[in-house]
Amino acid sequence: MHTIMTIVTTREFRANQTKFLGMARRGEHVVLKSRMGNFRLTPTEDEEEPEEPRRNVTEEVCRALKDWKEYLDTGKSDKFRPAEELIYELRNLEAQGV
User: Fold this and answer.
1) Mind listing the pLDDT tens digit for each residue in 80-95?
2) Of these four, 9, 54, 58, 64, which has the most CB atoms within 10 Å of its CB?
3) Is the same domain home to 61 and 86?
4) 3-state SS, residue 37
5) How many Å apart are CA 76 and CA 65, to the nearest integer?
6) For residues 6 and 28, is the Cβ–Cβ distance under 8 A?
7) pLDDT at 80
């Protein structure tokens, strides 16, 4: 028996979250590929929500600004992140009260 693995980018995942979460709930292997690494989506059976690790937002913003500077200075960057993605993430953090 072959297991099908679906690999999606963060952009694809954001656009179709319900679809990919449903696939993971049905036992399909869904891997989220991002600049921070690859992550397998798996449902949890616990009734409690898992505690999320605390994010160092200042460090993340500084890293993103350095990546932008590298991109502006050289025209390329391995870690370049579109401004829209950074703004979206910062707005989410603000909404969560982080």
Assistant:
1) 666 677 777 778 777 7
2) 64
3) yes
4) strand
5) 14
6) yes
7) 65
Residue 61 tokens read as 């913003």
pLDDT of residue 9: 92
> DSSP string spanning 1-27?
-PPPEEEEEHHHHHHTHHHHHHHHHTT
Number of residues that this document lists for the chain: 98
Taking 50 as the pLDDT cut, the residues of the chain under it are: none
Two tokens at 8? 């999606």
Q: What is the pLDDT of residue 44?
A: 80
29-33, long-range: CB within 8 Å, 24+ apart, which pairs? 29/3, 29/4, 29/5, 30/5, 30/6, 31/5, 31/6, 31/7, 32/8, 33/7, 33/8, 33/9
- What pLDDT shows up at residue 31? 93
Residue 61 belongs to what domain range? 57-96
- Residue keyed to tokens 């505690």: 51
- Count of domains forming the chain: 2
